[in-house]
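The protein record filed below.
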Amino acid sequence: MTVADPISAQGDYTDNVYSGKQDHRAQVCTILEQENAIPQHLIDAEVNWFYDVLGLDDMYFMLESPTAVARHITSLYGAQLTSAGQDNAINVTFQNRHESGAVFIHNSVPGMSKTEGPHFEQMIDADYLDISVPQKAYRVESYRSRGKVSKSLDASLRTYFVNACDFVNAAPEGDAVHDISQVSDRTFLAKATPHVLDLYSGVISKVLCRTGPVIVSDKLPSGAHRL
C-alpha cells in the first residue's frame, strides 16, 4: 500500500500535474450548462471554486471524467444549500469503482475520527488491499483538499485513489526481489523522491530477512519522527 498525503508528506512525492485540466474544466462547464441544475449565472463561480479553491489533487481530475466531475459539483452545490443554517450538517460522499480501481471521496474534519460515515478506509482494506496478490495487487493514494467544503464549516474533502499496480517486474527472482526498481509499481517509481526510494528499499530488505513485523522511524524536516 502506498499512501501519499501532500499535507503530511511534503517532499516525499512529486506533485501530480494534469496538463489537460483547462480543457477538462471547459467540458464540465458545458455539461452543467446543459443540465441546468445550477443557476446559469453561478456555474462559472462554482466550477472555478471546485477546480481552483477547494484544492483537490490533480489526480482526481486525471481519473474522473467531465461527466463525473459535473455530477460531483452539482451534488456538492446541493449539499451546501441543504446545510445552510445547520451546524456541521453537510454530508458529501462520492464513490466510483472501475475495472482497474476506484475513487472514494467524503468530507471530514482534520484530526477528528468518527464511528459513523462511509468507512471508506475499511472498505478499501476489505475490497482491495486485503485480497491483493502479486497477480492482482492494488495501491492507494490518499489526499486531503487544501480548501474547505463550505465557508461556514471546517470540513475538507478526503480523497482515496485506488489503482491496480503495474509492476516493473511482476515475477522477480534472485537478487531482483531486493531491488526496489524491479519490484515497485511504475507510477510509484515515477513519483517517489530518492529519499523515499532509499527508505522503502531498506524496509524491503528487512522484510525479506525477518519473519516478524518491520517498523522504521523516519525523521521529518520539522524534526519530528514518523513510523
